[in-house]
Amino acid sequence: MPASFNLQVAHHLTVLIRMARSINVVTVLALGLVAVLPCILSQELFYQLPTPYSYSCLNDTCSRDKNPEDSPSTQSLSKCRLLCGEYRSIWPRPTGTVDLADELVSFKPQRLFINWAHPPSAKIRDMLQQAAKTFQTELLKMHPNYDQNSQAGKQPNPFVKKYTGDIERTTVMVSLKIDTAEDRLTLTTNESYALGLNTSENGVVEVKIHAPTFFGARNALETLSQLINYEDTCDCLIMVRHGYVEDEPAFPYRGLMIDSGHNYLSPKAIKKVIDAMAYNKLNTLHWHITDSHSFPFYSRRAPKMALYGAYSPNKIYYPTVVREIVDYANERGIRVVPEIGGPSRAGNGWQWGEREGKGDLVVCLNKEPWKEFCNEPPCGQLNPLNNETYQILGRVYRDALESFSGTDFFHMGADDVNYACWNSSDAMNDVLKATAQIANDVTFQRLWMEYQSRALQTLYDGTPEGTEKPVPIIWDSKLTSLRDSEVVLDPDTYVIQIKSPAREPNLAKIINRGYKLIFSNADAWSLDCGFNSGLNPPLGLTPAQQAPVLPPCGGDFKTWKTIYDNDPMNIAATHHNNETAAFTQVIGGAGTMWTTETDDMTLETKLWPRAAALAERLWTNPTQSWREAAPRLDAHRDRLVQRGVRAEAIRPEWCFHNRVECELLL
Question: Domain Glycoside hydrolase family 20 catalytic, which positions (predicted)?
């Protein structure tokens, strides 16, 4: 292309921009396009023009000026979001001191450096190096020309260019100070941090981060990244010039449950969930790795489980893959908690016992009509009267604890037991008759309690030497609501994860027994609900029984507003005889994503940005409603998309620019 053409277009655009600043914008655009377009169109080229709109902060909300030609100055949306409101666009909202200046500084990411003096251990040094690398990559992703689909390390830096003097000279120096060598997240890990920013007259931005642990420092880096935006007028990055943030989470357990038992989730998809969790300061990935549908976890000591239980040889999680995911999560401040359920939610994968001479390990497998024997097809429950069941379970537990090394929790399931399933088993009934036991609900209730006691001991026996026994988590169920169930389910041993609706009367029994609690109440935090009308009626039912089977959450879609306003402390206090005691029992919560109709293709959009609302509830536990958070969530959803997360739209983009007029759509 001739050099004279480029110079000609550049000259036209320069004149056009200068004119736009001094006279009527519409007139200038018309004149400018008349002059430039023939030149552009003849060469099949197109040039971007700067937006004529400016944004003002009104009531902690950025709104576009209605008459751009009357605006005294131009302020972009990206600048406004860094200057508007006490918390700007930080998500989740900090819980401590926030003091941010109303000034910005421009820089290029090549001039941002992260350093740390005397890391507490070599492992922490390696984790800091990974965190710094991730942080630098997130800065590059802010550029609109960044290619999210390029291979890692292959993406050219879109900020490589010559900038004006101030931008070229500005240097951002980030220094990290960490007090302890703690490199695995536990319930007692201190995730707090202090973050200070100060810009000197010579153009050096000093960012000082102090945290007790690596996990707090990583949270601080996430907050820092949210005080930086891309600015198109300079094709550079901008950040808050001065500021100070102190922050710590309200709850130590802030989770998401994903389910690879119903539908297989690829390791790549799981890592993307972990990335998005880190952007939201969620710290626990609860991995429901097996179910009655499939058993994709490879147990080295019991390989037939995956052989018979996986959907295909390509859909198996081998130990190396699991460890890679666990380490990937740990570097991003996230623990991975495995769930291998029993005695229910166990079916395919356990059916090989009889042909191997071990008897029935599982009963009522794939039995119809399923509605009589389980909550959803395929049916299946472990045989608690077969000693071989516990032998195999022990092998699986041992391999899981080795693969999910360092986990402080282990989820044992223990929900949705159907007594009719056990009663339909000839093998179980033969044992009951031989021991003069009656096959009724009382007997099956006792068997369930005996199973849980033996399963817990089996878990403990499988704990590798030199490691602490994991804390068992179970779902709330008929078992946890039984009279005197605490005799078997010791409140000092078990953590109960509540999935029942918040108003379930039986919750009072559980909460008043003093258990530590994780809330996942299905009426607010079941993220999979609302995408269908329920399961089809099972085979073999009469016409009167042919109503669709709805999930426990009633099938209603949970909006981000419902998720945000769900306060686990209030739920616990409502059911507890002692409000103060209730508050000490709640360790956090988790949103649940059962993959009945979800796989890699839809996982992200179903999770985000609704799980971001969950994240702020669990980090901040705000007293305000969702309305205060709405402007920040708009900005945060944009940020998630910018970073490659397929977060669904909350409302029309027009509303981001015209918030006052769009309030009715909130």
Answer: 251-621
